[in-house]
Design brief:
The chain is of the alpha+beta class. The protein has one domain: Cytochrome P450 (Cytochrome p450, Orthogonal Bundle). The chain contains 15 helices and 10 strands. The strands form 3 sheets. Strands 1-2-8-5-3 form a 5-stranded mixed β-sheet, with helices on both faces. A 3-stranded antiparallel β-sheet has the order 4-10-9. Strand 6 and strand 7 form a beta hairpin. Helix 6 packs across helix 7.
Amino acid sequence: MPELPHNRGPDSTLAFLHDGYAFISNRCRHYRSDVFQTRLLLQPVICMRGAAAAEMFYSDRFERRGASPAIALRTLFGQGGVQGLDDAAHHHRKHMLMSLMTPAAIDDLADRFAARWRTAIGRWSAREEVVLYDEVARLLCETVCAWTGVSLADDEVAQRTDDLVALFHPLGFPHVPYLSARRARRRTDAWIGELVEQTRRGTLQPPDGSALQVVATHRDPSGRLLPAQVAAVEVINVLRPTVAITHFIAFAALALHEHPEWRDRFADGSDEEVEWFVHEVRRTSPFLPAAAARVRHDFDWHGARFPRGRRVLLDLYGTNRHPDLWEQADRFRPERFATWDGNPFTLIPQGGGDHHTGHRCAGEWITIRLMQTAVAVLTREMTYTVPHQNLHVSLSHMPARPHSGVVIRDVRSPAVRR
């Protein structure tokens, strides 16, 4: 059995932190192989990229139990959530989450988001400048809390927004130190856990079909209610990823600034072109760097041995930019999606495979719809200018974002002129 290409050094953790999103792809190019092995945190890891690797990664050859590093469980995912489940337990929990993702429910969420954004335009027009990242995070926090049935007082919004943002910055030095993210996790778990308990006692009655009501009353395959802390994690698994869409919306605003011809097209353009644009932003933007799993049983693939228990990382960012999958992969070309075949293993910013049965993000449809809403409002319902600022995106910061957060000025409704 041929040996996989591998780093000669004892450990690559520092290189991973330095290269960030580019770590796996850089080494794939160096080794001229889409699969190689290394050591991270002193543990052997197999890294891979590409559509064939993604299809194999999302098969039953892998399991998620014990795959995510502790830092992610303590901040990003929480303990006991759907991300760490396998087989029947995963399917049952995933079915609960997917039941929330009906077209009518997603329409309702998008309408709420658009309404809050339209109201915010009036506030922003009275200010000299606005950091779009910060404002959109607040809007998404308010919107998704109302949609999930989570009560949120006006004086709580800033803290809850900051905490939900902190949860998806566990490696976000220097944005959010790890200990700050841990404290945010504890506060958020306690907040939502209490709402779950109140729902079960009947002292709080969230709307039927809302995420809080569905998760609080959900029963596992044996008929038992989820432990309150696990139910809280699953409600947060709706709140946190929705607020994380802030990243994609910031990159969409950056793309509109760097490619103004698309702004002009959208002023009177079709919703189909907006969808192309959103997919291209998702394809090119650094969001999740990789997905983790462990090998369930020994197997061979492409002449290489995958031993049982070995941690494997699938390069999401690198697959989205793989030159064998995307023509002119490093160019921003939304029109490529006019002929895209919808392959679930080529465009994988939020995981690959099937939404209902696999580990693809349950909220991906929400992401697409809220990004479409944001692009429509930015191009059709407000005007603004983009001053000189530091819009650099560092691939060593995970998750990455434009450095300035995308500052805008002179915000106006199109009907309001100076």
